[in-house]
Every structure is written in C-alpha cells, then in structure tokens.
Amino acid sequence: MKLIVGLGNPGRSYVNNRHNIGFTCLNHFAGTQGIQFDKKQSKARIGTGEVAGYRIVVAKPQTYMNLSGQSVSRLISKFSISLNDLLVIHDDLDLPLGKIRIRYGSGSGGHKGIDSIITELGSQDFLRLRVGIGRPVINEDSTEFSEAEIIAYVLSDFTTDEKQALIKVIPGVSEAILCLLTEGLTAAMNKHN
User: Fold this and answer.
1) Is 59 helix (H, G, I), strand (E, B) or coil?
2) What local confidence, expressed as pLDDT, does residue 142 receive?
3) Which active-site residues does the annotation give?
4) Which residue ranges form the domains of the chain, and what is each CATH number?
5) Predicted pLDDT of residue 140
C-alpha cells in the first residue's frame, strides 16, 4: 500500500494560496484516478483506490501545515505504511514557479510542514515531490525577507499569471506520481526533475 500526502491548510480562505499547492496537485491526481476524499481519519481527509496495481491512500492533513506530522504519523500507523511507501507533495520556495523536483530523504529546507513530518516520524527517509512557488521579488532596498514576509507570501494567493503557469504543472505532478508508481524513483527523477 502507498500513502500519498498533499500538504496545505484546510478552509476556504486558503484554497488558492501558494502554500496549498500540495492539496491542489493531490486533488488533480485523485480526480484523474477516480478517487474521492470521502472519509475523515487520522486528522485528514482521505480517499482510497487502486492505481498501477497498488492500493493507494491519498490524504490531505487537516491539522494546518505546521502540524502535518501529527496526521501523517497516524496514517502511517493506521495503514501500516513503510516510510519507503510514503510520498509527500509540497510547495517549495527555493524552486522557480512551476518546476518540480522528486527527492528521497534530506532535510526540510525550512518547510514547516516537512519539519513536522520529520519530527513525528523520527526520520527524513521518505519521498517528496516539491512544487516550485518561487520567492517574492526582492526590491532594491532589501536583500532578503523576514520570516513574517515569507509567511505572508506563502499564504497569499497565486496571481492570474502564476495560475496560467501552473496549468501545465499540476497535470505534470500527476504524471510524475504515475511514473514513480510504474517505473520507480530513478526513472521518475530522470523524466520529471
């Protein structure tokens, strides 16, 4: 069984936020596979189905981003998932808008949702599919952003132009997930990174 988790914040006010691209991508993938988020379990909205011969659980933690690990650790226990069968989809400030990267292991890169998952699982040995949201534009008066400015940026909505750029990215994430399932990590990284 595989567990695919999209990270985001629950509630209507967050739906179009940059920080919710994990939810958006997972919604698309689930939709293409005929999987509905029809249950609430382990502090998450979940759906189950079969994809490429695997039993799949898709999950959107409802704990808010910074506590995502609470839900993920419960799901891992409930469904007896190996960490090798966990994939987490999340936004990444360090990737340009629309780029995706598949990685196994490594630190959180400062992402609070990934921090929470690593802390709760006691391991960083799981797959991540990072979706680039870019960084805010630096004006000539500053060289970097405060934590408050970064938080405001990730919790703001995508602009109209950014939404256009994401039209190809969101289905691309679904293709990358299918490639991971059918061809494995190396092939997926070669094709989609």
Assistant:
1) strand
2) 62
3) 19
4) 2-192 (3.40.50.1470)
5) 62
